[in-house]
Amino acid sequence: SSELEGDPAGANQAGIGGISVFASGIWAAHNSPAGLAKIVQPMAGLFVENRFLLKELCFNAAAFAIPVSNGGMAIAISQLGINQYNNLFAGFAYGRSFGENFSAGIRFDYYQVSYGSEYGKGSAVSFEAGLQWQINEKTGLALSVFNPIKAKYQCTPPQEIPSLWRTGVSFKPISDLQLLFQTERSSCDGYTFRYGVEYTMTEQIYLRAGYSTNPSGISFGCGYSFSAFTIDIATKWHQTLGFSPQGSLIYKL
């Protein structure tokens, strides 16, 4: 699952350097459950990423969300397959608002990993929790913690799932331009810093770019909304491994 790889689901997040703590709407189900507080109508989303243009390295994700009083609930599923290796994720998430500017959420996770017939498979249960706080019109803060209990796959030998701590700050110098920064710490890979920018060209068109470290890579993308649909496309570029194109579709029911 992308949660394990440290990369978010949703091409809008991918376009801004993989910044995920500010996710709102449907992809908050995968990225930051606090963002489900902004769900106002039922919606479904599909996401696909072709990592480094290798057909064996396809990451697929889906989510379905509905509004409830003061917030939203969602189901999130994803699958990452590489030859014999297969990683499945399913989560149930809930986010709610506390006043106009503060929201919190939690997601309960189930993971299953399979290493092919020789190595068997294992599963694990964990959770993610998050907060989002819009301090004023220009500035926002967000925080999420994934797998703080350091759950391991119950296989031989037991494989640790990384715990991830993410914090972010967003700033809007003008109403159509958002600058974003996220730092994350993984129990396996240490620190990663992510920088992103999103420009709202019209009410329907969004332009995005980003940069991330560990490993360093640049990303760019765009989004287009029409009637009940939103289409986002993005690509990440790694200087050694090349491009990872991504696309997502959101449908408001």
Walk me through the structure.
This protein is mainly beta and 253 residues long. The protein has 3 helices and 16 strands. The chain has helices at residues 2-5, 11-15, 28-31; strands at 43-50, 58-68, 71-82, 85-97, 102-114, 121-134, 139-146, 152-153, 159-160, 164-174, 177-186, 190-200, 205-212, 217-226, 229-238, 242-252. A hairpin with a 2-residue loop joins strand 2 and strand 3 (71-82). The protein is globular. The mean pLDDT is 90.
Count of alpha and pi helical runs: 3
Shape from CA axes?
A: globular
Helix content class: under 10%
Task: Give the biggest beta sheet.
Answer: 14 strands, antiparallel, barrel
Distance between the termini: 26 Å
Number of β-strand runs: 16
Secondary-structure-derived class:
mainly beta
Radius of gyration: 17 Å
Topology, pairings included?
Elements: H1 2-5, H2 11-15, H3 28-31, E1 43-50, E2 58-68, E3 71-82, E4 85-97, E5 102-114, E6 121-134, E7 139-146, E8 152-153, E9 159-160, E10 164-174, E11 177-186, E12 190-200, E13 205-212, E14 217-226, E15 229-238, E16 242-252
Antiparallel strand pairs: 1-2, 1-16, 2-3, 3-4, 4-5, 5-6, 6-7, 7-10, 8-9, 10-11, 11-12, 12-13, 13-14, 14-15, 15-16
